[in-house]
Write a structure and sequence with these properties.
By secondary structure, the protein is mainly alpha-helical. Helix content is 83%, strand content 0%.
């Protein structure tokens, strides 16, 4: 590869890095910030792929804690409201508290419930796509999409733990790719002046 081609590749990667991360828009951003972010994101992705079950439990627990805190805020702030909205807000806050407590106490069970709801949703969506009326000659792709949605939904319903692991693996792989991209982008950037 000639020196001009190397420079062109570096310019293209630099331009893509500027699009990829808003950190580059901040004057004086160090390229090592991108490298560090890339390493951290790639390691998180690797952990998700290597330990999907444990990662899912930790993630569900963290989300459960957030829902508990949010439910407390909603419940307590509802006491300041007046009228019909107050009762709805109190009920909503209490339901959030219950959901959050269940997610912290039984994270894997809640994950299975979640993936099964997604499975039911996929089957219903697939049936709707298969049975909908389309203009002549324009429904083939929609029907294929409907069939795939049903297959995905059935897989989620009959193999919920494997489905959860698959979702975590896909997220992990995407995070590894994003992290490696940031790492390379940071390494190829010219030092800030």
């Amino acid at each position: 590869m000639s020196e001009d081609e190397k420079n062109n590749v570096q310019e293209i990667l630099t331009e893509q890095a500027e699009i990829i991360t808003p950190l580059l828009q901040i004057k004086g951003t160090s390229r090592w910030v991108l490298v560090l972010r890339g390493v951290i994101i790639a390691l998180i992705g690797l952990l998700l792929v290597a330990m999907p079950g444990q990662s899912l439990v930790v993630l569900t627990t963290i989300i459960g804690i957030f829902i508990i805190i949010d439910g407390l805020f909603v419940t307590f702030s509802s006491f300041r409201l007046a009228g019909r909205g107050k009762a709805f807000t109190v009920i909503y806050g209490i339901l959030m508290l219950i959901l959050g407590i269940l997610m912290v106490a039984r994270p894997l069970a809640m994950d299975v419930v979640w993936i099964m709801f997604v499975g039911v949703w996929q089957v219903i969506s697939g049936v709707m796509l298969l049975t909908a009326k389309y203009p002549k000659g324009r429904g083939v792709l929609m029907r294929i999409s409907g069939g795939l949605s049903i297959v995905l939904g059935v897989a989620f319903l009959f193999f919920p733990l494997l489905s959860l692991a698959s979702v975590i693996w896909v997220i992990g792989i995407l995070l590894m790719v994003a992290g490696i991209t940031l790492l390379i982008s940071g390494a190829l950037l010219s030092p800030a002046k």
